[in-house]
Amino acid sequence: MARKAAIVGGGVIGGGWTARFLLNGWDVGVFDPDPQAERKISEVLANARAALPALSDVPMPPEGKLTFHGTIGEAVEGAEYVQESVSERIELKHRVYAQLQQANPGVLIGSSTSGFKATDLQQGSPAPENIIVAHPFNPVYLLPLSEISGSEKNTEATVQKTVQIMKDIGMFPLVIRHEIDAFIGNRFLEAVWREALWMLKDGIATTEEIDEAIRMGFGLRWGQMGLFETYRIAGGEAGMKHFMAQFGPALKWPWTKLMDVPEFNDELVELVSSQSDAQSGMYSIRELERIRDQNLVGFLRSLKDRNWGAGKVLREHDEARAAAFHAEMQKGIDTGPKAAPLVMAQMQVLPGWIDYNGHMTESRYYFANSETVDNFLRLIGAGMDYVAAGQSFYSAETHIRHLGEAKLGDRIRGELQIISADEKRFRSFVRIMKDDECVATIEQVCLHVDMKAGKSSRAAPEVWAKLQAIAEAHASLPLPEGAGRAVGQKR
Amino acid sequence: MARKAAIVGGGVIGGGWTARFLLNGWDVGVFDPDPQAERKISEVLANARAALPALSDVPMPPEGKLTFHGTIGEAVEGAEYVQESVSERIELKHRVYAQLQQANPGVLIGSSTSGFKATDLQQGSPAPENIIVAHPFNPVYLLPLSEISGSEKNTEATVQKTVQIMKDIGMFPLVIRHEIDAFIGNRFLEAVWREALWMLKDGIATTEEIDEAIRMGFGLRWGQMGLFETYRIAGGEAGMKHFMAQFGPALKWPWTKLMDVPEFNDELVELVSSQSDAQSGMYSIRELERIRDQNLVGFLRSLKDRNWGAGKVLREHDEARAAAFHAEMQKGIDTGPKAAPLVMAQMQVLPGWIDYNGHMTESRYYFANSETVDNFLRLIGAGMDYVAAGQSFYSAETHIRHLGEAKLGDRIRGELQIISADEKRFRSFVRIMKDDECVATIEQVCLHVDMKAGKSSRAAPEVWAKLQAIAEAHASLPLPEGAGRAVGQKR
């Protein structure tokens, strides 16, 4: 049975949490008295569905069930976790917790607050140990950070349970060791925000110039290493101490106006918003969201390729889910393979996959085939471990037919049929399907290789046994139309 | 003749500038009295060579000539631009400028200073108008930002000349409208640095936790949108004013310790450096540099795919260089095509192209073919404009043979031979070459398509004329070994 989370407060943040839980297979019960809540959440969810699955190399679990409720009590029924994202008013939060804890005593409550400490949130609660801060960053369905901040009333077990739930939905829980206002992330955001407001007010730079200064320079560094690791490099071979010695004195220089706070008045608001309109007004907020999401997907995918930073979190999350997925597939094989092509991969056409025509670019069909074949190799026991031990299947040649078109956002799947196999090679025929339409076929011969010897060899007996069983089951399938074709051959 | 820049001061920053100019085809004369300068610059250059070309989709120009000189006078001879990156001591900078201006009166001098204003730098100079700030961010060969800051003594022409030189080497010049200490970028870095030091000192978080808080959250946002555009989205449909109203009051909250500066003493230095060792000490600085560069290449490439932010800068730089490259290729065609395969693409195996075996992943051979064919289409007049006007060549089927292996960093090229062509289709045979080794062949049939009608059609007469001329020239070439093969066919 699916696990269940309750979401109280369904704005941009609550909606983001809803999407993250749902797409990770949890059921979600939402409570928000705003009559617009359902519409707002469905919009966030649409964005999330177009972006989050693009980070996964393992088919997503079936989406959980989303329900909206008229009372907090109904929403929290059967939930093991609540994410509270209501307005930053402490008395409102206290009221919400009282109702949650009455309806579902013992439920764990994480708060999205960026203004209150756990100690503040826990006041007046009969079970303060079950209330903790889990502070995310927008968009919640893409950015992994969740700052976990408890008080001395939270047990280690509660903290660890929260950490585990965050990991289960693919987040990076950062446990903050001492209770402080604004946790860690927002302290930096606040510092930069103040400095930026001064620059605007003093007419030094516009909102656009400030954004360019960030995203053309240090912003790119921070997305993958942060502050200290970046500076460690700047120190060069002499290291961090050298960097400190070099730049330490700047602390005393008059570089910043941070010692003072600009007056927050209508004039300042007008200045910022009119400049922001000039900079970004040509895009609607929805468009900006989609642009942002696609950029973030690009960053996160490239970090995932490198197994670094946030990309490492994605890989670990995949690995946890891959085990379950492959166990499921394995069951099907162990009970005897069927005479039907194997659905070995499910993918979505990503922003980086399309060409200037707006279609999935040709080489991505080959990529889709590789994903399909790689999953098949894992299935027959010739995955990463097998490669690490020095054996592998290498593709020798490949024939691709382009029969249709896939477009941005389309969901496609790879279905694999074994045409022939022996102990040293197999010939596969993969159909890339978009719903019932076959958009491409890929026929391929893969050779088994002893990587150390650098030559063709026999597969390990247990791998061959699985391959053979599937090949025998598939032998009764008709030879696919187009198999055995050469390029340019008449039909 | 190549343009020439002089580099005075050859540390990490000077070395980064050297690399950027050289790889963009400029000759570079370096002056640095440090006996280690040549070694240091060659190390930065090695990093740059492994990363910067990976951002380009147009073959890089031939590298400029790098020379080291014993005097400033020799280094600046024949240079149209000087980048000064010596230590932050004003009397040293003044001395350097005096020698530069004596040896090459009228030469434009940009300073990498982060501490001095143009007014400070210009003092005592006979030609203050030729001295300006051009402040870069490390690594200079990858990050596009160059903050251009002049004083009232600089003419608009000088500012524009600096801007143009920065664009010529692929940077994003940001002209700062008023002279301020630390320009824009470093003001933010300083604000964050102060807040970070407080957190460390107060034991709230370690260097590693702070880095995670940045790179798992807002750091990812900042690399592509910056501060204000991100907050514009956070304001939702109600926009920037709503965001300001919501978060403005936080300016008065006690979230930050920025009103005060932590004391800079040995204890603080020790705290930071020991935590940094624990966090990153398992990597050498060189390793961290390579990891950083590969991450940045990933970010920048994904922004380039989306034509957004720093990726837009890359595209514009490519376009400027593509025009020259294609004009050169065109000359070869206009003077009558030769009976030899066309070298249509030069590429480098990028970090994102390799599989778990460490080899160039299969689908990237198809990608390399697509790059080759796309450049060919541009050559015969069927490029982006042709597609925009509603006509295109679509690939119908493709046969790939994997004959060898390319590894990370290998330079490969795509050589194209036309096997047959008529007005409605052509059959191409591409060899992917690594030096003299053919690592893959790709045979393909492309059909000419009227995109509106959605069906096969005749190519425009001027396109067909070029295609036909090349096809006729190639008709005398022998049919390549492997052409016409089907998958699994016996040799």
UniProtKB/TrEMBL annotation, chains A, B:
The reaction(s) this protein catalyses: carnitine + NAD(+) = 3-dehydrocarnitine + NADH + H(+)
Keyword Cytoplasm: yes
Signal sequence extent: none
EC number: 1.1.1.108
GO molecular function: carnitine 3-dehydrogenase activity
Alphabetical list of Pfam families matching this protein: 3HCDH, 3HCDH_N, 4HBT_2
UniProt cross-references to Gene3D superfamilies, sorted A to Z: Hotdog Thioesterase, N-(1-d-carboxylethyl)-l-norvaline Dehydrogenase, domain 2, NAD(P)-binding Rossmann-like Domain
Role: Catalyzes the NAD(+)-dependent oxidation of L-carnitine to 3-dehydrocarnitine.
Protein name: L-carnitine dehydrogenase
Organism: Pseudogemmobacter lacusdianii
